[in-house]
Specification:
Strand order of the largest sheet: 6-8-9-10-7-11
Oligomer: single chain
Strand content: 5-15%
Largest sheet: 6 strands, parallel
Number of strands: 13
Structural class: alpha/beta
Helix content: 40-55%
Distance between the termini: 115 Å
Number of helices: 26
Radius of gyration: 33 Å
């Protein structure tokens, strides 16, 4: 029997030697593993036997310790032994050579017998004496029960993990805590306390992390690991087909356990299996890999382990199953882990190569699947050349790996997850799931599908987040959406993208963003680049700051720079000088812009918004139709002026005066202001009036029913309040075109 098993990373061998010598000087029997293994299959029987015959494990927990697979397996062995005895910290001693303890997982060990690094021989002797005193209180070794030995994995074949799996230590412990939270005396004994869900975007490594957890923590589940693969086939799958496939795999497990598979519905089969699991009376792990979106609450409930002895772990890209199980969100790899994955097959050989490798990790946003594909490509060329290929046009380098694939664009309209997340391809071997069948590429985006348009906007804004308000503002200005439809369209589109794992929550006020790799896929593989360009322009106008106005008390606005004299919509040059209306018309706008301003002014001054609607006269429905027609005209003018003038030298709709450049475009700011005035009015009053019209009794005329509306006067008041700001915009259009249609015509 050994008193203590010393677990350490090979990079800490000199430090381990100091600790081992001090422990042996105290007369303790110390086991030290000098082998160097890094996968579960290579962990020897000798190591397992030594652990079972040791009273406790002493972990030299440096920052390198979590990165060594064998170290974490040894630590888990001791932790689970203590957990079965009532205190998971009972069999673990920790020596921390680092100045902080944030690298130590699980967090419970930060409060365990946790000693700092002994900096002197005397300190090492004191540490050894304290360890000896604690070990003397432990009468028995950890024992064979700490190792489950053979743990059945059904349906066969068993997963084996990956030798190049990196990081994710904290997430594994979060999963374990969630699955065993019911053991805490202050936590309610509910089924949800035995369930956890790994959530994340496609290719982020959910399936492989679940495998790693099942392999590393298998001693906690001697009853077996039951793995059900529900990843969708290419093209998606219905909820009914998902349930059918699940039943087929459950039937395989039941038959392997000697259960006579009954005919009939799935609950009958699960009930028969629950009886057998209860008779076996051993904890087991029930893994549902690739849980799709779009299942009902009843269908989700059938995916839980059929007995309370079964802890349920699901992987899903959907963010809409929050109530089903405790979520553990899987983010892209941090920079250090991403670099280790990228360099796992070929280390950078020059300083330039190293800098390129670091940049590649940032370029793909720490996405494990992409890093795995790049790591394979790096075996054929340097990282500098590889980065150039990543950003070059033409064939996507991420599709060049044999058996590899591009991260698939979401298919939220299918009602389930999009492309399969294959846990056995090259991406999976590098710590990620695949995101589509090999060579399939991403699906094309539709020209005017709302979900696709919203995804385009997120990709165009990436890495900046977008709020629902900005999305509504943009969609209300592009064909074919009406302003009163924008809010509902955005809500449904965001919900669908959340179901497919395409969105990531931003820390600021309910905004969302998309991962850099998904944004790249949208920008590179969008089949309708014209639609993308329309949305880009509308997004720029929505995000652009409002035009500068004269300061209070007649003060001039601050100049933009000393070198240019950009003219704004109120007639100030960048040098702070006022220009005349005639000069603004001649210098601030070209013939195309002036003609467009005149056309828009004609539409504006003839509409109800500028022309007053007498009390109890006219039709509110016709007024709404008139303003909507004006809205459409302003939207068309906005797109036309950008297209005809070319959007400015920088693609931002601004022309720069000074340094040989022309003056800025003024019309886009005016048209955007007009849209901003009309949008809230139309969005509010169109559905309100439509609801009243739907309740019109038979035999009552439309005008009479409208006059009987209890909100008629309120709407007329709101309509009258539009007159002043719309008239002001008409005046600006008149100054821009050189013809103010509001003025009386002289004979």
């Amino acid at each position: 029997m050994w008193d203590v098993f010393v677990s350490y990373s090979r990079t800490d061998a000199p430090r381990a030697g100091v600790v081992v010598s001090a422990l042996r000087a105290q007369g303790l029997r110390v086991f030290v593993d000098d082998s160097d293994v890094d996968d579960f299959a290579s962990i020897s029987t000798a190591i397992t036997r030594a652990l079972s015959r040791s009273k406790a494990l002493l972990a030299l927990y440096s920052v390198d310790y979590p990165a060594r697979r064998a170290c974490q397996w040894e630590l888990t062995f001791a932790y689970l032994t203590g957990q079965r005895e009532g205190d998971p910290r009972r069999r673990v001693l920790v020596v921390n050579p680092e100045p902080t303890n944030e690298h130590i997982h699980p967090v419970e060990l930060r409060d365990a017998r946790h000693w700092p690094w002994p900096g002197t021989p005397e300190a090492a002797d004191r540490l050894a004496a304290r360890a000896g005193a604690y070990l003397a209180q432990l009468a028995e070794p950890m024992g064979e029960t700490a190792d489950a030995g053979f743990v059945p994995w059904l349906p066969a074949p068993a997963r084996t993990g990956s030798a190049r799996f990196v990081g994710r230590l904290a997430e594994q412990w979060q999963v374990h805590s969630a699955l065993h939270r019911h053991r805490a005396p202050l936590i309610g004994q509910s089924g949800a306390d035995r369930a956890a869900q790994l959530r994340g975007m496609p290719g982020v490594g959910k399936s492989l992390l679940a495998q790693e957890y099942a392999l590393r923590f298998r001693p906690a589940f001697p009853g077996g690991v039951f793995w059900f693969d529900l990843h969708a086939e290419p093209g998606g799958r219905s909820a009914e087909r998902t349930t059918e496939r699940y039943r087929e795999q459950v039937s395989t497990v039941a038959a392997a356990l000697g259960v006579e598979v009954p005919d009939g519905p799935l609950p009958r089969l699960l009930s028969a299996l629950a009886v057998v699991l209860g008779e076996r009376n051993e904890p087991c792990l029930w893994v549902v890999d690739g849980l799709p979106d779009g299942l009902s609450a009843e269908q989700l409930h059938l995916l839980r382990g059929p007995h309370l002895l079964a802890a349920t772990l699901v992987t899903t890209r959907s963010l809409r199953h929050t109530s089903f199980a405790e979520p553990v969100d899987l983010a892209p790899l941090p920079a250090g882990d991403g670099y280790r994955l990228l360099a796992s097959r070929r280390a950078p050989r020059t300083e330039a190569d190293r800098h390129a490798a670091v940049a590649l990790v940032h370029d793909v946003g720490g996405h494990p699947q992409a890093l795995g594909l790049l790591a394979e490509l790096a075996t054929r060329a340097g990282f500098t050349s590889l980065r150039s290929r990543l950003h070059s046009p033409g064939t996507d380098v991420l599709a060049a790996v044999s058996g590899g694939s591009l991260p698939a664009l979401p298919r939220p309209e299918s009602g389930a997850s999009g492309a399969a997340e294959d846990a056995h391809g090259p991406g999976a071997d590098s710590g990620a799931e695949g995101a589509g069948s090999a060579g399939a590429g991403p699906r094309p985006l539709g020209s005017e599908r709302p979900v696709d348009d919203v995804l385009r906007l997120f990709a165009l804004a990436s890495p900046a987040p977008l709020s629902p308000a900005v999305l509504e503002q943009v969609l209300s200005t592009v064909h074919p959406y009406a302003p009163w439809e924008a809010a509902g369209i955005v809500d449904r589109a965001v919900d669908a993208l959340l179901g497919d794992g395409a969105l990531q929550p931003d820390a600021h006020d309910g905004s969302w963003t998309v991962h850099a790799l998904l944004a790249r896929a949208v920008r590179r593989h969008d089949g309708d680049t014209a639609r993308q360009e329309d949305l880009r322009r509308a997004l720029l106008h929505a995000l652009a700051p409002p035009p500068r106005t004269a300061g209070e008390n007649g003060q001039r606005p601050a100049p933009r720079s000393d070198a240019s004299s950009v003219t704004d919509t109120d007639g100030w040059t960048a040098a702070g000088r006022r220009v005349s209306d005639r000069r603004k018309a001649s210098r601030g706008a070209g013939p195309v812009e002036r003609a467009a301003a005149f056309d828009l002014q004609v539409e504006l001054v003839t509409r109800v918004g500028v022309q007053p609607l007498a009390d109890r006269e006219g039709s509110l429905r016709e007024a709404l139709a008139s303003l909507h027609s004006l809205f459409v005209t302003a939207r068309e003018v906005l797109h036309r002026i950008n297209g005809e003038v070319g959007g400015g030298p920088h693609g931002d709709g601004i022309r720069y005066e000074g340094l040989g450049g022309p003056a800025p475009l003024l019309l886009p700011a005016i048209a955007t202001g007009l849209l901003a005035r009309l949008r809230p009015f139309l969005s509010h009053w169109h559905p309100a009036l439509e609801e009243h019209e739907a309740a019109r009794p038979e035999g009552v005329s439309r005008p009479a029913h409208e006059r009987a509306w209890d909100r008629e006067r309120e709407m007329r008041t709101a309509l009258a309040e539009l007159r002043e700001p719309l008239a002001a915009l008409a005046g600006r259009l008149g100054r821009l075109s050189g013809v103010d249609l509001r003025d009386p015509v002289d004979d």
